[in-house]
Write a structure and sequence with these properties.
- By secondary structure, this protein is mostly helical.
- It contains three helices and no strands.
- It has a domain of about 110 residues.
- It is rod-shaped, with a radius of gyration of 62 Å.
- Keywords: Coiled coil.
Length: about 170
Amino acid sequence: MGIKKRAANGGPASIKPKKSAALGLIQPKTITAQPFDQLEAAAQKSHITTMNDLRQFYNAALFAQEQAGLKLAQENKDHQATKKHLNKRVEEGKKAAKKVVMQNEELRIKNAQLRKENEAVKMGVVEAERERAKLQKQWDVTAEAVNQALVMQQGPFDYQAPVVGSVEI
């Protein structure tokens, strides 16, 4: 009801004095040194406990920091080893690429030479075909002349048809 009353009035509820205090039935306690000693001992014990907790926390933090440092050092070592390995692989790749480029250049030069030789051979074949055609014409003319000479020598009645392209000696 106090909350409702407080909310209804828009302010704090009134404080009513207890009857026992008003009648003087409650006597104030006398303060002695003993509770202060107990309080001081409790505070000292609490302080020691807190300090021990702080030491444990600090030691745990140092241990965690040391472990993190060791882990970081191991990761760094692994990273350096990986980096070294990858750099080595990159260098090997560069050497292999350079070698391939050199071989490619050599093959390009050799290919150009083979094209020139092939062109020369083609020209030689064309020239040989011309020469063969020329010789075939000469052969045909010679065979015809030989055949005519044989016909004249044997006479018109003993004629045997010669085989064209063959010469009998």
